[in-house]
Amino acid sequence: MTASNIWVFAQVTDDAPTAGTLELLTKARSLGESVTAFVLGDVGGSAAALGEHGATKVYETGDLGGKLPGVAGAAAMKATIDGGDTPDLVLFPQNYEGRDVMSRLSVKLDRTVLTNNTDIAVDGDAVKVTTSVFGGTQLVTTTFTGDGPHLAAFRPKSFAAEAAGGSAPEVKKAEVPDLGASGGAKLVATHVEEHSGPKLDEAAVVVAGGRGLGEAGKYDMIESLAKLLKAAPGASRAIVDAGWVPYSYQVGQTGKVVKPTVYLAAGISGATQHMVGMKGSKNIIAINKDEEAPIFGVADLGIVGDVHKVLPKLIEALESR
Amino acid sequence: MNVIVCVKQIPDPAMPGELDPSTKTLKRSGKLILDESDGYGVEMALQLVDAAGGGEVGLVSMAPNGEVSGLRTALAMGASKGVLVSDPELQGTDALTTAKVLAAATKRLGDADLIIAATESSDGYTGTVPEQMAEVLGLPSVTFAKSVTIEDGVLKVNRQTEAGYDEVTCTLPAVVSVTAGVVEPRYPSFKGIMAAKSKPVEEVTVSDLGVSPVGWAGANQEIVEVSDAPERQAGEIVTDEGESHLKIVAFLENLKVL
Ligand SMILES: Cc1cc2nc3c(=O)[nH]c(=O)nc-3n(C[C@H](O)[C@H](O)[C@H](O)COP(=O)(O)OP(=O)(O)OC[C@H]3O[C@@H](n4cnc5c(N)ncnc54)[C@H](O)[C@@H]3O)c2cc1C
Ligand SMILES: Nc1ncnc2c1ncn2[C@@H]1O[C@H](COP(=O)(O)O)[C@@H](O)[C@H]1O
What we know:
The complex is a heterodimer. Chain A is α/β, with parallel strands linked by helices.
């Protein structure tokens, strides 16, 4: 078996691992014998949950002191590998930190990194990963050739997280070596942009608006509707780039991946990069005035109509219930 | 202040993509254009050089068949010169080797204070090339920049995060990857388009750069299968005649969301 020692790049916030981390751990424990979670910063109260999801060992770097995660994380991982613990496979989340760390690590180890995957299988000596292309219409399966460690990154919600009741993992310190010139970047402040309602990637209902709303002020309709449905408001990249709503609202390839019970898209065309972030929703409602809009190809209920007519009536109908 | 921008030349995204059945890679035949994502980097570089009061913007690109049309677009916007790496041996090259090749190509343009790329390309979207280039060059990097300024020789970046943004400072030289919408790319003027025709673009091969192995040999991966994904069935489509909101209410009631 090629994948006896599997590492997961693990992210923790306050006292809980992120949902994506638990997804990767769950998958990792089905692939190999030993699973290690590699944490930038302190693992703190998250160690128990990492253990329950399959990690038997945790490396933590301790406070990064303003160093950026990419360069510090890759250096700490490389130093740990040089110290004698060599993984066969390292799983990363396809997100900001994951991307930066795996990129730097791939150069340090001189190994390719396969990105944007939605599945992985270990088949004898072969590690195979699957990625979907052309907006999810085709699946491409790729196998690593050459020596490990094999590096692979996965899109959020590729796997379902499930606790297995594992015991508390052993926690070890991973040193961040001197970064030299590549450590010239420093974090000086962190800003959190408020997002109203439930979390976008966890909500049971998502109401998203796009350029078809016409102007920034009309996004109020999305917010009102979201409130009435206890939904998270979301957006296409077109209106994020235009500055109507913050980036934290964005659904799609470069935004959040959502899989709610209901996804309502208003004035969104359904570009492939948007669809990869919402196609997995259980039920999709689309409102668009163009009957040819690609979004109708995935909608369970499609309304060919004007958002300025349909949404106010919908809001009124829900308010009067 | 000299800035180098990585510009990827890609098939027009308006044309449907296709896999080459023999190599199982994206078909990259036909005319290529400047990746829209890199238009932001070119504009950002031009603005930074302007603000610094001197210097120039150089370009690096790796593309098949000696393709330069995307480079010419960036030159027409105001960049001064470019290096194109084009070599049949590069067929099948992965992101890591691309980063090695581009890093070596930047050296042909002399020392740069800053190297700019996009956070991800429109056709490949691995999002790893800029950070890999930084590591190859031994430079610091800031990815996902949504604003970039330089004050007293220090780079100041607001970096996009899941929850908001981080303020980051960084020493120069450095690599920065910028997000879409960071600046408004200018349209090339007629004068710019004419001038671009005579701006220098050096075409080099892999052996000129001394990077090996490249192409399939350096990619350490093999595509073993391509299949169609299960299709989602389209549902009911109705045209609004003033009452379609009731359809939505009924649909939600049916799912017990209401
Ligand atoms: C590398 C890369 C990554 C990307 N990542 C993402 C991503 O993460 N998320 C994302 O969303 N996009 C992403 N995009 C952008 C994507 O390609 C589209 O440009 C974007 O999704 C379009 O947003 P939109 O549907 O709001 O706008 P448009 O495509 O302009 O569509 C607007 C729609 O509104 C309809 N409309 C207009 N007026 C009305 C009205 N009065 N009533 C009803 N309907 C109306 C129109 O018919 C049209 O279908 C990415 C692109 C690239 C290149
Ligand atoms: N072949 C290439 N030529 C020039 N720049 C590239 C090339 N490939 C990637 N880049 C740069 O790196 C960014 C990220 O690319 P990717 O890692 O493919 O998503 C791109 O947006 C470009 O700025």
